[in-house]
Every structure is written in structure tokens, then in C-alpha cells.
Amino acid sequence: MNDLAKRSFAAAVLVAVALLAAVRGGYFFAVLVGAAACVMLYEWRRMVRGSDFGWQVGGFLYALLPAISLLWIRDRAIVDGHFIGLELLVWVFITTWAVDIGAYFAGRAIGGPKLAPWISPNKTWAGLVGGTVSSALLAGAWTWMTALPVALFVLAPFFAIAAQGGDLFESWMKRKAGVKDSGSWLPGHGGALDRLDGLVVVAVLTAAALFGGLL
């Protein structure tokens, strides 16, 4: 099985598990989120081993904040008296997944100038644009189909760019730690931090927008 096939199969399994957990909600979703946060913290601590206390605390917050955000979105997202938890959670997923897919294929098909070669030599400006456009279109379609707040049409491209910033941050951490991937448990993807770096950002920003009354 080639690398693309491995990545596609692993991604399909992750998507299926995430959507099933999102639909089930309750303890099922909470356990999945908690397990993911624990793996993220383990990988973070392994990468920053020997660093100062600030990095240890930073890893705890990096794992905790998105976990709380996802749980709050799923169970507490109410806008204008309507509960939109499941729909908004799926919007978070779509926004993040579309970035990864669009950036991967646009980067491979178009190539061109590198985005940040000193951090991640494989990322290109074409990938950034492709990921942002894909996310805006797919998240926008979901927003329209489910009648989510119209502010999400505007927020999607900005959150998509922020997700790619999260990806670059995690790439910088790996370079600093001298490792290729944060882990090896997921074929074609690496570890939990490799797969969830964009979701961390989008989840926290969406929860902040909801809490701040932007939706």
C-alpha cells in the first residue's frame, strides 16, 4: 500500500470515529476527547523533554483547551435559543479536515514557492490558498445546509488560515525537538499532534467566538 493509500485509509477511519462519537455525544464523545488529549500531552512532553517548566505547562494547556472547547461546543452551543451543538461541532471538523485535504492536493498539484521552508520544507503558498479555499467552500456549504449562524461564512477562511498556522507551529516544535513526527501510531500521519494540530486551533477559536457572542 503506497503512502497516499495509507493516509487515505487512516484518515477515513479517523473521520468515521469522530463523526460517530459526535453523533453519540455524552460520555462516548467525552471519553474519545479525553483520550486524544492524553495522547497529545504524552507526545508533547516527550518532545519537550528537558525543557523548562513553561513548556510543560504549555503542553498541558495545549491539550486541555481544545478538549474543553470541543466538549462545550457539543453540549452547550446555543444561539438565539436554538441548540446547534452537533451542527457546529461538525462545522469545526469540516473546517479543519478541508484545510488538510485542500492544502495537500493543491500543494502537490501546483507546487511553487515554499511557505516556510525553514520550518516545514513541504508546505507551499499554493497549499495555503488551496486549503483556505477548500475550507471556506465546504464549511460554507455545511453552514448553509444546516442554517448555522451566517457569521460562520466569514469566519471559515480565517479559521482555515489559523489552522495552517497551528500546523506550522507543530512543525516548528518537531524541528526544535529533532523528530520527524510526534508519534508513529497512525500510518501515514504520525502521531496525535501531527493529526490534530489544526483542530486544536479551530476548536478553541470557535468556542471563543461562541462565548464572545460572535455567532
Please outline the major beta sheet: 2 strands, antiparallel
Shape: globular
Number of strands: 4
- Strand fraction equals 5-15%
> Helix/strand-derived class?
mainly alpha
Mean pLDDT: 90
Q: Percent helix among the residues?
A: over 70%
Q: What's the SSE pattern?
A: HHHEEHEEHHH
Count of distinct structural domains: 1
Distance between the termini: 44 Å
Strand arrangement across the biggest beta sheet: 1-2
Backbone CA Rg = 17 Å
Low-confidence stretches: none
Contiguous helical run count: 7
Short description:
Helices cover 76% and strands 6% of the residues.
Question: Keywords for this structure?
Answer:
single chain, about 220 residues, mainly alpha, two-stranded antiparallel sheet, 4 strands, globular, lipid biosynthesis, Phosphatidate cytidylyltransferase, transferase, lipid metabolism
What does this entry look like structurally?
This protein is mainly α and 215 residues long. The protein has one domain. Helix content is 76%, strand content 6%. The chain has 7 helices and 4 strands. The chain has helices at 3-24, 26-47, 53-76, 85-110, 125-146, 151-177, 192-211, and strands at residues 78-79, 82-83, 114-116, 120-124. The strands form 2 sheets. Strands 1-2 form a two-stranded antiparallel sheet. Strands 3-4 form a two-stranded antiparallel ribbon. Helix 3 (53-76) crosses helix 7 (192-211), helix 5 packs antiparallel against helix 6 (151-177) and helix 6 packs antiparallel against helix 7. It catalyses: a 1,2-diacyl-sn-glycero-3-phosphate + CTP + H(+) = a CDP-1,2-diacyl-sn-glycerol + diphosphate. Pathway: Phospholipid metabolism; CDP-diacylglycerol biosynthesis; CDP-diacylglycerol from sn-glycerol 3-phosphate: step 3/3; Lipid metabolism. It is found in: Cell membrane.
